[in-house]
Design a protein that fits this description.
With about 625 residues, the chain is of the alpha/beta class. The chain contains 21 helices and 17 strands. Strand 10 and strand 11 form a beta hairpin. Helix 12 runs antiparallel to helix 17.
Length: about 625
């Protein structure tokens, strides 16, 4: 906004219009009309200026396109009527400023598509306003929260429950350049209008005609607002004596609406593929946000207590006035959990395990030759395979932790999330792990002076499933804006217990296969091999199964089977089985990121609850 100019923001709600004038000096003024901030509309405004008594012939206001509210009336007349509140707002703003306001912001629902946005621009043009900037209501609310000191770090999520004449619930994410809408659901029957109808039914009877109901609409609305802070009020009625409305009537009218808003909040969070624990907060705004039981219903339904923003009816208009005024350079950087020191064990344990296994494999290999001219080498292929698997796990642990550290220590915000940085680390780790496995094969073949083919086969093929799962996880991490609980380093921390048990188990198996079998040591050597099989079986279960009860159930039979089949020929198979178990461990992590709870059934599309303002065939 240039010096000396003013910015006008207008929120044309279904029940009334709010307007805020922001000046260049940073001050803001709420425009008043007849002494009141909201410019209330009549319950039904005739499209052609003539009262027909037919509700279908009326246009509710600027937010209702002519095709949705009229039957056969001229579009020009409809635009003229819809523009009347905006024309009055423009006149009041010009009176305050002393000249026409050129910077205009108009608040629109988040679910509006291009047809409705075009209609609003046409209404603004007919009202004599310059081309307005359309600001989505939840984005305006979120910007207002930032200006009032609410802490919303970049990467955080929040929910805005806009409860006015209807209800619109939106999940937003704060990015480096502003807020983006992730999911929005609306229900026109979950707001103040539904409460007004229920309260009118309680006061004048449900069988009353639409004409009489419209004549008492203003009285019912005033009574509803008064009952928020008074136990009872007198409601004047035309052509009949006044009646008494009490808080019990209001409570009865509000409960189903509050419950529906709470349900809508839960459905919107699920549609955004989030949980309540992922949210930075739930904020209630709108003219009906202070209705009794609303906050309690949302807290009961979601498990998180919402915050009713002060002056909820003005929040969107205030926020729209300041949208874009915050310098992006001052945006907070992404807050990413710093991996704890113990994550270093996720790197050291498989790294040392890999070195120990390859060292034992080289030193205990049996060479067979004739006078040094020709010889063959008997290698424990299972141990050799597990050394390659452990090397890959060490690289993956290092790549994940380093990616999280870089994201946590990034001095400036960027478009790449923690998942994006971890993704790069995983891809680099897969390449490095495969290179180390290949290096093991080349060094071992050169050390023994034998062809490298078999060694490459046992080093690279068993780790292929692990590599594929890790690459798939990298792709998923790069495409997801939501980090898992505790960060990616916590989700992908190597299964340390399984690694230790598998390394000790294979070490004992190799010892039992290659140790000198003195008569007094045969029994202990054989027991060592069986114990190694038991440990390897337990390690496989620890890698594949997470719940403790299932581990206890599966570990016993599998460990006994592994102990029973320990032999030189079975050692290679045992190593491959553990490699498959590690691949399964990665697959379960991948599954936890890809699989999401099914979004709520979109039956609301038929009733207008999802993006209720969008007509058939209209794009978002």
């Amino acid at each position: 906004m240039a010096a000396g100019e003013a910015r006008l923001s207008i929120d044309c709600g279904s029940a009334g219009t709010q307007a805020v004038l922001a000046c260049a000096d940073g001050s803001a003024h709420v425009l008043t009309f007849d002494g009141n901030p909201p410019l209330h509309r009549t319950p039904h405004m005739p499209a052609n200026g003539q009262a027909t008594g037919q509700p279908a012939a009326f246009i509710p206001g600027p937010r209702q396109p002519v095709e949705d509210a009229t039957t056969g009336d001229a579009r020009g007349d409809a635009l003229e009527v819809a523009a009347s509140p905006l024309r009055r707002v423009a006149a009041e703003a010009e009176r305050v400023v002393g000249q026409p306001v050129r910077d205009v912001r108009v608040v629109v629902p988040a679910g509006w598509g291009p047809r409705r946005r075009t209609w609003m621009r046409q209404v603004a043009h007919r009202a004599g306003l310059p081309q307005p900037r359309l600001v989505e209501a939840p984005v305006a609310v979120a910007e207002y929260l930032l200006t009032t000191g609410v802490r919303v770090p970049v990467g955080a999520f929040l929910v805005v429950c806009d409860v006015g004449a209807g209800a619109e619930v939106t999940v937003l994410r704060r990015g480096p350049a502003g807020f983006e809408v992730l999911a929005t659901l609306a229900d026109a029957a979950a707001g103040g209008t539904a409460v007004d109808h229920a309260l009118a039914d309680a006061l004048i009877g449900a069988s009353t005609g639409e004409g009489q109901r419209a004549s008492v609409a203003d009285s019912v609305r005033v009574a509803k607002e008064a009952l928020v802070s008074h136990p009872a009020v007198t409601v004047p009625l035309p052509d009949r004596p006044p009646v008494i409305a009490n808080s019990a009537m209001l409570d009865e009218a509000v409960r189903p609406v509050a419950w529906r808003v709470a349900q809508l909040t839960q459905e919107t969070v699920a549609a955004a593929e989030l949980t309540v624990g992922d949210l930075a907060g739930i904020y209630c705004v709108g003219g009906s946000a202070q209705l009794p039981h609303l906050a309690a219903a949302i807290a009961e339904h979601t498990g998180a207590a919402p915050v009713v923003v002060p002056e909820p009816g003005l929040v969107a208009a205030r926020g729209a006035a300041d949208v874009g005024a915050v310098d992006i350079a001052t945006v907070e950087r992404v807050e990413v959990p710093v991996p704890p020191v113990r994550r270093a064990a996720a790197i050291a344990v498989p790294g040392f395990a890999s070195l120990a296994l390859i060292w034992q494999c080289l030193l205990t290999a049996e060479r067979h030759g004739t006078l040094g001219v020709y010889y063959s080498v008997s290698v424990n292929w299972g141990e050799f395979t597990m050394a390659a698997v452990m090397a890959l796990l060490a690289c993956l642990a290092a790549g994940t932790v380093l990616g999280s550290l870089i994201a946590a220590r990034s001095p400036t915000p960027g478009t790449r999330t923690e998942g994006g940085r971890v993704s790069v680390g995983i891809l680099a780790a897969v390449s490095l792990g495969a290179a180390i496995a290949g290096l093991y094969a080349v060094v071992t073949s050169q050390y023994f002076g034998v062809p490298v083919g078999p060694y490459l086969k046992w080093a690279l093929w068993p780790i292929a499933p692990v590599s594929v799962m890790a690459v798939a996880m990298a792709v998923v991490a790069a495409r997801q804006w939501r980090a898992p609980h505790g960060g990616w380093s916590a989700l992908l921390a190597a299964p340390t217990g399984s690694i230790v048990a598998a390394t000790l188990g294979m070490g004992l198996i190799q010892y039992s296969l290659t140790a000198d079998r003195w008569p007094d040591r045969i029994l202990w050597i054989d027991i060592a091999g069986r114990v190694g099989g038991l440990l390897l079986g337990v390690a496989v279960v620890m890698a594949v199964v997470t719940p403790l009860m299932f581990r206890l159930i599966l570990a016993a039979p599998l460990a006994v089977i592994f102990a029973a089949i320990v032999s030189r020929r079975a050692a290679g198979m045992l190593g491959v089985i553990y490699a498959v178990a590690v691949a399964t461990w990665w697959a379960t992590r991948l599954w936890s990121r890809v699989l999401r709870p099914a979004p709520p059934a979109r039956t609301a599309l038929a009733t207008g609850r999802v993006r209720a303002d969008m007509s058939p065939g209209e794009g978002a």
